[in-house]
Specification:
By secondary structure, this protein is mainly beta. It has three domains: 115 residues, Sandwich (Immunoglobulin-like); 105 residues, Immunoglobulin-like; 192 residues, Immunoglobulin-like (Sandwich). The protein is built from one helix and 32 strands. A hairpin with a 5-residue loop joins strand 14 and strand 15. The chain is elongated, with a radius of gyration of 38 Å.
Length: 463
């Protein structure tokens, strides 16, 4: 009887499959789940001296598996190194220095959390266990011994951890612009400090170097301004966890945390804006009388702001001893209110006075971080000796803080600034002399394009 071609074909396929299966069994028999499990060194001395600090754990998985590596001390204490870690089939090598997940011995208590810690010196039974992913009944275990001796077990503890102030406002207004994080290392360690908020983004804090090397045993200070000093927008307002982490040369790591609140953060930016004519400063003149005299003890009369819009004149002329008057507009285009300090617009300076003459000594500590408009002439003996607040009490926001009154120009707002200087010094060889204005961020900078604004020649005529 003849078989059909279809049946003959099916028989041929079955025969070929049988040959393939037999070949696989011959060339690649059912191999063990875990193979070649061993340590490169049976004794290690984890003290970071470069000699026998680390042993290499080697093993092979022939199938995907959940892997566990543990060490058991003579007293039965179990130290896990890997716990049910999913591993695909393959050859593995991993260094082990005796450091495992953090733990505390009976009666121990430390400031902070022990994240990673060296096992005590001793003889340990190591166990490598594998459980097949596809078949949980398919398991294998390998064991051996490992000796730890001369280990550097001193933890890299952090002491004296403080955060000050608890609330900071990174906006360069001179008040609580920075947060200072102080701590002490009990041993040389790699030290990392960062803030982390609700978005889980870490904001790393730089150390303020004061003679001690980074990570050196002893006191350390970390200083954070929110990035504002580098013209970086600070993190969002909110509460942040401050993390300080110390890791020694062996790999032990200790972490300590605290909290700090960020408020009113933002980049301060302002400029002197141009008039409709294109000129940035309006100049005018007024006769002087003694009623204008002002210092920090005496408040004289103030001048009114020039009311007209000035054309592009190149020179003004006035009798020696009279007043040169200016007016300009400041615009806060930044993302945060900017603080200012007096004297108020309209104040009259004598030529030989400076802003110090207008400010009581008790108030000068508040100058740093304030914004003011300054005026200078070529023959001035100091940089922008005459300065005024960037607005009046009616145009600014008043803030009471720790018994002190502070004044702010909010974002998106403009303020008019004006004032006068009595021009008493006539130098024939420098007549006329150029005068000009600037927008000054005290003890920070004169912003770009805010220096020598509205320059004009001022000519004096002898009386």
């Amino acid at each position: 009887m003849r078989l059909s071609p279809f049946l003959l074909g099916m028989a041929a396929v079955a025969a070929a499959a049988a040959v393939v299966v037999a070949g696989v069994l011959i060339l690649q028999p059912n191999r063990p789940l875990l193979a070649d499990a061993r340590f490169s060194l049976d004794t290690i001395t984890p003290n970071a001296d470069g000699d026998s600090d680390v042993t290499e754990i080697r093993y092979t998985l022939h199938r995907d598996a959940y892997l566990t590596i543990t060490f058991t001390a003579a007293d039965g204490t179990r130290y896990p190194f890997r716990e049910s870690a999913l591993r695909p089939a393959g050859d593995y090598r991993v260094g082990f220095s005796g450091v495992v997940d953090g733990y505390l011995r009976p009666g121990e208590a430390f400031l902070g959390k022990v994240v990673r810690r060296l096992m005590p010196d001793g003889v340990y039974t190591w166990t490598i266990s594998a459980i097949s992913v596809e078949n949980p009944q398919d398991t294998m275990t390998a064991t051996g011994t490992l000796t730890l001796t001369n280990g550097d077990s001193q933890l890299p503890l952090i002491e004296g951890f403080t955060i000050s102030p608890p609330v900071f406002t990174p906006n360069q207004d001179g008040y609580d612009d920075r947060v200072s994080i102080n701590l002490t290392l009990v041993k040389d360690s790699r030290l990392t400090v960062y803030l982390q908020g609700a978005d889980n983004v870490p904001y790393y804090v730089s150390e303020r170097f004061e003679g001690r090397k980074p990570g050196e045993k002893g006191a350390h200070v970390f200083d954070y301004d929110g990035g504002v000093d580098n013209n970086i927008t600070p993190p969002p307002n909110g509460e942040y966890t401050v993390y300080a982490s110390a890791e020694d040369a062996v790999g032990q790591r200790v972490e300590i945390t605290g909290t700090v609140t960020l408020q009113e953060g933002g980049l301060p930016n302002a400029e002197i804006v141009a008039q409709t004519t294109g000129r940035t400063v309006t100049w005018d003149t007024l006769p002087y009388d003694d009623g204008y005299f002002t210092n920090h003890e005496t408040q004289g009369r103030t001048v009114d702001a020039p009311s007209s819009v000035q054309s592009q004149m190149a020179q003004i002329t006035l009798p020696q001893g009279d007043l040169v008057v200016f007016r300009l507009t400041v615009y806060n285009y930044g993302t945060t209110p900017i603080r200012t300090i007096g004297p108020w617009p309209g104040t009259v300076y004598q030529y030989d006075q400076t802003d110090a003459a207008m400010t009581p000594a008790t108030a000068r500590e508040g100058i740093s971080g304030a914004w003011r408009v300054g005026l200078q002439c070529e023959r001035s003996e100091s940089s922008y000796p005459w300065r005024w607040a960037i607005g009046t009490p009616e145009t600014l926001i008043r803030v009471e803080r720790d018994g002190e009154t502070l004044w702010y120009l909010p974002p998106g707002r403009q303020a008019t600034v004006w004032g006068a200087v009595r021009m008493t010094r006539l130098i024939p060889t420098r007549n006329p002399q150029k005068c000009f204005a600037a927008l000054i961020h005290e003890d920070v900078a004169i912003p770009p394009r805010q220096n020598r604004v509205g320059e004009i020649d001022v000519r004096l005529t002898p009386r």
